[in-house]
Specification:
The chain is α+β, with helices and mostly antiparallel strands. Among the domains are: 4-65, Helix Hairpins (Orthogonal Bundle), CATH 1.10.287; 153-216, Urease metallochaperone UreE, N-terminal domain (HSP40/DNAj peptide-binding domain); 223-304, HSP40/DNAj peptide-binding domain, CATH 2.60.260.20. The chain is built from eight helices and eleven strands. The protein has helices at 4-8, 16-30, 39-55, 58-65, 118-125, 161-166, 237-242, 299-304; strands at residues 153-159, 170-173, 179-182, 193-196, 210-216, 223-225, 228-235, 244-248, 255-259, 268-271, 286-292. The chain has a four-stranded mixed sheet. The protein has a three-stranded mixed sheet with strand order 1-5-4. A hairpin with a 6-residue loop joins strand 8 (244-248) and strand 9 (255-259). Helix 2 runs antiparallel to helix 3 (39-55). The longest helix is centred in the first third of the chain and has 17 residues, at 39-55. The radius of gyration is 40 Å and the shape is elongated. The N and C termini lie far apart (94 Å).
Length: 320
């Protein structure tokens, strides 16, 4: 008969936290994956799991402490049920002598009438017990803990900004040297995790999983804003004044953008469907902010503008 307290190495007054901590320590130390050449460790691992199963259950622990069940979770015998029978009175006519003066037998352990012990067993072990069949748990060990899968393996995957936006498949190398093509989900966010079923370490009931953490790399000129992509595009003074068609990059490749005559710096143009893929489908937009850029050599421009004055007060809205 095992003592679950001794198995886990804790005292009878141990708290739930102490019991859990002791079990985790033993489980880590004795896990079969770490002790492949030590069958004793596997036996101790199972025993620790069974002890924890009993002591982590408040009802079972109380029953064990009162002596109602043993360390295997079986009902404790209230008296010796071995051979030799029982003698003496037990509840009036259910003991002592029969009507003809002969000793009354229990359970057919001798001549005479057979005694009905069902009431006694129901009182000791609960309903469903009887002298012949016992209860559902009588004489039966607690089921062993379910076998565990192997540990998971953590991976980090750096995804280029444009690939994340258009959900381009990514190739990842696993710990066993094999490579797989990973399909990115809609609405992919930096730091998102993807689970690769069965791509972890081996275990008793199968391998664990691979957990892939996504790291979206920054881009030299694109900036993400929700599902949209922002971009600042320089334009010249003539393009701003007279209008123009300029070539601008997008995550899907370059496109031609129309700049209207008289466009100021800060004006935002929208390119539909050129952003990140949204959760549930569809794409965000690309927001293009125009920035008028002066030439490095201002001498010629200054000469051209020498006699020109801007009409009106450009800072009037500031109250100046």
């Amino acid at each position: 008969m095992s003592d679950p307290y001794a198995t886990l190495g804790v005292s009878r007054s141990a708290s739930e936290s102490d019991i859990k901590s002791a079990y985790r320590k033993l489980a880590k130390e004795l896990h079969p994956d770490r002790n492949r050449d030590n069958p004793k460790a596997s036996e101790r691992f199972s025993a620790a799991a069974q002890a924890y199963d009993l002591l982590s259950d408040k009802t079972k622990r109380a029953q064990f402490d009162r002596g109602e069940i043993d360390g295997d979770g079986n009902p404790a015998m209230p008296f010796n049920m071995g051979g030799g029978g029982m003698s003496g009175g037990y509840g009036g006519q259910r003991g002592g002598r029969g009507p003809n003066g002969s000793p009354r037998d229990f359970g057919g352990m001798g001549g005479g009438e057979e005694a009905d012990l069902s009431d006694l067993f129901e009182g000791l072990f609960g309903r469903g017990s009887n002298a012949r069949g016992g209860s559902a748990g009588f004489g039966r060990q607690a089921p062993p803990p379910p076998p565990r899968k192997g540990p998971n393996i953590a991976y980090k995957l750096a995804v280029p900004f444009i690939d994340a936006a258009v959900r381009a498949n990514q190739r990842i190398t696993l710990s066993d040297g094999k490579t797989i093509d990973l399909a990115l989900p809609d609405g992919l966010e930096d730091g998102a995790q993807m689970r690769l079923k069965g791509k972890g370490r081996p275990g008793i009931s199968g391998p664990g999983d691979g957990i892939v953490t996504i790291e979206i790399q920054p881009h030299p000129f694109f900036v993400r804003e929700g599902d949209d992509v922002r971009l600042e595009v320089p334009i010249t003074i003539p393009e701003a004044v007279s209008g123009a068609k300029v070539r601008v990059p997008t995550v899907d490749g370059p496109v031609i953008l129309t700049v209207a005559p008289g466009s100021n710096s800060g004006k935002v143009l929208r390119l539909k469907g050129k952003g990140f893929t949204k959760k549930g489908g569809g794409r965000g937009d690309q927001l293009v902010t125009l920035q008028i850029t002066l030439p490095e050599d201002l001498e010629e421009l200054s000469e051209r503008l020498k006699d020109w004055q801007h009409p009106g007060n450009v800072r009037s809205r500031l109250g100046l």
